[in-house]
From TrEMBL:
Protein name, as recorded: HTH tetR-type domain-containing protein
MF GO annotations: DNA binding
DNA-binding keyword on record: yes
Keyword DNA-binding (UniProt): yes
Source species of the chain: Patiriisocius marinistellae
Source organism superkingdom: Bacteria
Domain HTH tetR-type: residue ranges: 1-37
Gene3D superfamilies associated with the record: Tetracycline Repressor, domain 2 (1.10.357.10)
Amino acid sequence: MDDIAEKCGISKKTIYRHFQNKDDLLYEAIKLEAFEVKKNIDRIRLKNDNALEELQKFFKYINNVARVISPSFGRDLKKYHNSNLFKAITFKDKIIIPFVIGNLEKGKREGLYKEDIDAVEICKSYDELSNAVYFNYYFTDSSINSKSLEFLSTLFLYGLVSKIGWEHLHKP
């Protein structure tokens, strides 16, 4: 709290007037970020012609977010602020997961994704793998995490697409 107060140019007393403790401050920061993520996902959803373009822009956005969040943040959240970790996961489950499942169903209807994919299972698998990349104790460099997430997203995307989707991916 001392560091936060110093960087904000205010006293700790002022911070504690607005937040009960560190966990409360952290929760509010997570909530604010979740709101920003939702706003950007809604923007992505509205601006794209098809599910494939939508998913590509979503992956680009999420990878950019991952690039600026230190991997130690996830580890510290898990180690010292477990209740906030579960709240962050809840936001992800309410915002990101439904978006991706909806995108997968939309892509199947558009013929851009394989008809036989199970949107819920595929989404859960991607979520587990991306969590493993992000929360992995061996990764301490956010650029490595970002590159790993980009690679995982590319694999995920190519595993989804139908022949028509493949052609869309390779349009000049």
